[in-house]
Amino acid sequence: MLEDDYVAVEIGKAKHIALVAHDGKKKEIVDWCDRNKDILKGHFLCGTGTTARLISERTGLPVKGYCSGPLGGDQQIGAKIVEGQVDFMIFLWDPLEAQPHDPDVKALLRIAVVYDIPIANNLATADFMLNSIYMNDTYSRQIENFNKTIHDRVEKMK
Ligand SMILES: O=C(CO)COP(=O)(O)O
Fold first, then answer.
1. What is the DSSP string of 98-156?
2. Alpha-carbon gap, residue 55 to 26, rounded angstroms
3. Which of 1, 7, 119, 148 has the greatest number of C-beta atoms within 10 Å?
4. pLDDT tens digit string along 48-102?
């Protein structure tokens, strides 16, 4: 493996956290944020439209809201991941209900994996993440050097 196969992404102590929940999971995420607001207030929060609004209303924390999920909010959060503006995501998707924007949901989960973003899809995982030693420290993620991968593929085609 060559040194430049991977690039390091440095993350500061204050994390950029994306919060997303389907309707059947809204109560869970709002209650969880309320329970953890003393920790969350030290970080930058964003979320899909309705989730962000409900969390903000309950906890008083500032949560930057994007569009509602079915109207493109998942895609906006995905774009923020690509731009390096999300450090981890809590996405409580509902395993018991079909979503009209299922392709967007899949795309968001996919791009989060591509960029090695820690994702909590349930509250137990969210608890583990919030209590991780990395929450109070800097952290360095290693992501694949896509520029190099693409360059290598183009070279092979020549
Ligand atoms: O649909 C969502 C995630 O896929 C969430 O969107 P809202 O937070 O706007 O309900």
1. --TTHHHHHHHHHHHHHTT--EESSHHHHHHHHTSGGGGS-EEEEEE-HHHHHHHHHHH
2. 9
3. 119
4. 999 999 999 999 999 999 999 999 999 999 999 999 999 999 999 999 999 999 9
How far apart CA 14 and CA 81 sit, in angstroms, is 16
Distance of CA 106 from the midpoint of ligand 1 (Å): 13
Structural domains of the chain, ranges and CATH numbers in brackets: 14-135 (3.40.50.1380)
Rg (CA), the chain: 17
Q: Rounded to an integer, what distance in angstroms lies between the CA atom of residue 123 and that of residue 127? A: 6
ipTM value:
0.99
Please say if 74 is a catalytic residue.
yes
- Residue 29 token pair: 């995420």
Task: Point out the catalytic residue in the list 74, 102, 104, 116.
Answer: 74
Asked if pLDDT for residue 20 goes beyond 70, the answer is: yes
By the 8 A CB rule, do 117 and 47 touch?
Answer: no
CB–CB of 88/17 below 8 Å?
A: yes
